[in-house]
Design goal:
Elements lengths: L2 H34 L5 H22 L7 H16 L2 E4 L4 H12 L5 E5 L3 H10 L6 E5 L2 H10 L4 E5 L7 H15 L6 E5 L32 E4 L8 H21 L2 H14 L6 H16 L2 H17 L1 E4 L1
Parallel strand pairs: 1-5, 2-3, 2-4, 4-5, 6-7
Helix pairs in contact: 1-2, 2-7, 3-7, 6-7, 8-9, 8-11, 9-10, 10-11
Length: about 325
């Protein structure tokens, strides 16, 4: 069988699947329209609107099924687009205090707030807590999607800061579960801010939501790593830097052990967290090294991973830190 014949059969199968899925979806769409014309309670109407939204999303996925042929798109880009489709804003990691506060105020206003941060990076959680320390806002932190859903569906939060790349239940799935629970309770949707160091790239299909903030550290942007001195201008961040650098030394040992064991996913996840927090502490070079290690782990490039670990080791143990 030629590759052309194989592709033709694949397209025929895809068209048949579309036909089989669209028929019941069209019935479901018509049923929801009919239901909304009947005497429903507000809670029931909320459920019907949720079904309509899900049906529309399924229609879109079916009509554009070819785009899922790309493994990268089906993974990171698709999850980012999914999260951004319901998020009120996006903040690219790493970020500074002003960008974070501005994004929160853009969706929740200037008032006392209760905020839920969902992120598995202790460095990032400490940074956010420090940034919000003088705002008077209350911050709760959970490290995975399952706990996020449990917290947000039993407690009322004004804003959820949601990372996309979480262990277990990912950020997009957790955000949908929270939105579903809001609809079921008949309450206004909790504003969700997508927080991610993932680069959507030119192929990302989701529109940028209100409050979109592009990451200041796109993977193709090379950061100068040779600087021997880093100046920390924020007096609240300066005391946190020694512990941050100690954590990177621990990461180096984690990377070396994982490389010896061929544990590329462990390298990728640790590098991703490092990419998202380094610049917030004043170390753009560490964020860039995290991005490069993440890419090398995805490619399973053993030699490049080894070189980058050595580069990180050299940087962490030679950089001088001064306070402004």
């Amino acid at each position: 069988m030629t590759s052309t014949e194989s592709e033709g059969m694949s397209k025929a199968s895809l068209d048949a699947l579309r036909h089989e899925l669209l028929n019941p979806l069209n019935v479901l769409a018509g049923a929801t329209i009919g239901l909304l014309e009947t005497d429903l309670s507000e809670a029931q109407r909320a459920w019907v609107r949720m079904i309509q939204s899900a049906t529309a999303r399924l229609h879109g996925a079916i009509e554009n099924a070819e785009r899922y042929d790309s493994r990268a798109l089906a993974d990171g880009r698709a999850r980012l687009a999914d999260l951004c489709s319901i998020a009120a804003a996006r903040v690219g990691k790493p970020f500074d205090r002003e960008r974070l506060v501005r994004a929160i105020e853009s969706v929740a206003g200037h008032r006392p707030l209760r905020i839920l941060l969902v992120d598995d990076s202790p460095d990032l959680a400490l940074l956010v807590r420090t940034y919000l320390n003088k705002t008077g806002w209350t911050l709760d932190v959970v490290e995975n999607g399952e706990r996020a859903v449990a917290e947000a569906t039993t407690e009322r939060y004004d804003v959820v800061l949601m990372d996309i790349d979480l262990p277990g239940l990912d950020g997009a799935t957790a955000a949908h579960a929270i939105r579903t629970a809001d609809l079921a309770r008949g309450v206004a949707p909790t504003p969700i801010i997508a927080m991610t160091a993932f680069d959507p790239g030119p192929a990302a299909s989701a529109p940028e939501p209100k409050g979109f903030e592009p990451s200041a550290h796109e993977p193709e942007r090379r950061v100068q790593r040779a600087a021997d001195v880093v100046t920390i201008a924020d007096p609240e961040i300066a005391p946190l830097v020694p512990e941050f650098l100690d954590s990177r030394r621990a990461d180096i040992q984690t990377f070396r052990t994982a490389l010896a064991d061929g544990a590329f996913e462990g390298i990728r996840s640790t590098a991703h967290r490092m990419k998202g927090s380094g610049g917030g502490y004043g170390f753009d070079a560490i964020s860039q090294l995290g991005a490069d290690l993440e890419a090398a782990a995805d490619a399973r490039d053993v030699d490049r991973i080894g070189r980058l670990i050595d580069e990180l080791d050299d940087y962490v143990n030679s950089v001088q830190v001064v306070s402004a």
